[in-house]
Amino acid sequence: MALTSRAVLVALAGLVPVALLPAPLTVLVWALVVVVVCAVDVALAASPRELAVSRRLPPSVRLSGTVDAVLTLRNVGRRTSRALVRDAWPPSTLPDGDAPTGARTPRHRVDVPAGEQRRVTTTLVPTRRGDAVADRVTVRTLGPLGVAGRQATLDVPGRLRVLPEFASRRHLPSRLARLRELDGRAAVQVRGAGTEFDSLREYVDGDDVRSIDWRATARRREVVVRTWRPERDRHVLLVVDTSRTSAARVLDGTRLEASVEAALLLGVLAAHAGDRVELLAYDRRVRARAADSHSARVLPALAEALAGVQPALVETDWPGLVGQVRSRLSRRALVVLLTSLDPAAVEQGLLDVVGGLTRRHQVVLASVADPELEELRTSRRTVDEVFDAAAAERTSLERDAVAVRLRQRGVEVVEASPDDLAPRLADTYLALKAAGRL
């Protein structure tokens, strides 16, 4: 039996005759009346198990996107079901109650006549990546008086894959335009050295004299230069560090979230450039991997692989990571390490093994910088702030020293705030490609 708020009101109404006739018999009579009313209402309520419940749900949605979870209720009994339905989902998938979307509640009132069906919709707004698993569906059917009814919890499986948001997509058009310039597909022709010969054209002021083709110049009796385009079909390996350092919060998110955004932007850009993109999420073991040679499928493959990746509270096994990289790359490639520039973590692990990567590959380390560190360095109004500024300054100097040691070993270091890391890394990729270093 399930009681409603109306049953409480009926019981409270009995306080009036009890107060007027304070006798034990009056109390017993009124209690008996309440019990009989509730029992009759329960007997007349339809069974909640006579509702056949099925779920319809899209397979995936992007983070902070909106998706509708639809429940279909089919009444296979002989009575009309006056039901209150609760579709249970994790709190991270439901909109806040004080938000404009707060009316999208997982509770629904619905009447289903015998032999008919109704649909109820729960709007989900996920705030975390990964798999959101629906809990059971609770159905409470009420009697005609609405004071009591029956309740049952039904298993209606549902799983929603929450993909990364890819907010850095807004930087993609400008980087693709620069890529077209490098490839010579736009009106601007890249001048100077490149990596693959493209064509010959007449010399103009500003051209690099090293690009002059003297044989063609002698034949045509005018100065002719070679034009170049970046090489295609290079291998780009994106390594996302999922160790404990990736769990650190920077502003409103974690380091891992910023790394995911940077990996998606660079992966899509490299795929448009004709390079082969592969992803590896690693700490002490492989957490996820993705590889697709078709440019149109690179983004879905990367998003699917990164959807369920979460930080692990362990130290990165850098020798193991280098072994994973070597086993996947048979020729020179671009290896992008999306990790932390934390001095302790780098000095105790990465510095000892990074030379084995830079001897064969072009290595880029991309790290998230904390903007609050710069605020601490510049704020010195009180004694406490002076001490905080000194600690922040020391931390900054240690990170700069580690970055210098990495550059001495041939590593390109990119450090930027969470919002700027993805475009900065994309710019570094374009610069390396233009310089013929891939």
Automatic annotation (TrEMBL):
Residues in coiled coil: none
Ranges for domain DUF58: 200-407
Sequence intervals crossing the membrane: none
Renumbered residue ranges of the record's region Disordered: 88-108
Domain of life of the source: Bacteria
Pfam families: DUF58
InterPro entries given in the database record: DUF58, vWFA_dom_sf
Signal sequence annotation: none
Protein name: DUF58 domain-containing protein
Organism expressing this protein natively: Cellulomonas dongxiuzhuiae
